[in-house]
Amino acid sequence: xxxxxxxxxxxxxxxxxxxxxxxxxxxxxxxxxxxxxxxxxxxxxxxxxxxxxxxxxxxxxxxxxxxxxxxxxxxxxxxxxxxxxxxxxxxxxxxxxxxxxxxxxxxxxxxxxxxxxxxxxxxxxxxxxxxxxxxxxxxxxxxxxxxxxxxxxxxxxxxxxxxxxxxxxxxxxxxxxxxxxxxxxxxxxxxxxxxxxxxxxxxxx
Length: 205
Fold this sequence. Notes:
Layout: H1 11-29, H2 36-43, H3 47-53, H4 57-80, H5 87-103, H6 108-117, H7 122-149, H8 163-178, H9 187-198
Helix pairs in contact: 1-2, 1-4, 2-3, 4-5, 4-7, 5-7, 5-8, 5-9
Keywords: DNA-binding, Transcription, Transcription regulation
Protein name: TetR/AcrR family transcriptional regulator
Pfam families: TetR_C_11, TetR_N
């Protein structure tokens, strides 16, 4: 298609517009059904313009993940190295960050996309694991290792399996996608109950 006449934009702004369009179309149609021309049409540009910035759909997805995840990972990383927090306080802050920046925003659709299409398209699961999951798990492991050293964990072995702590986050996404209209999930109660099973009561550590 021909690009509509409009004020010239910088390469970075154009790239941002393409990524915004890609996110919208991926969310609506899924990764498999989305074509580069669909993204170009949503952005109001020619198909060739997309290829000036991204080699293919996987490159687009990589850029999308980086843009959406960077603010979340920055906050998670800051919590992981913050002094003066108990393990429970740190994990609570991590959960709060997830709710505020993922569960209550459009970012949740990206995780749903990974869950639904990752098995058929391993490349997008690998991208998300490399750029997001592995970074988040490293931060969780830092928090849990310190908690184990201070005797705060009911089962110190949990420090070696940070995926356990991430499980309520995945549950909240899956439940919200499938069952929220039938039975809403109180994520605060879920997280608090899970933390009770994970950490020793205050004063017992």
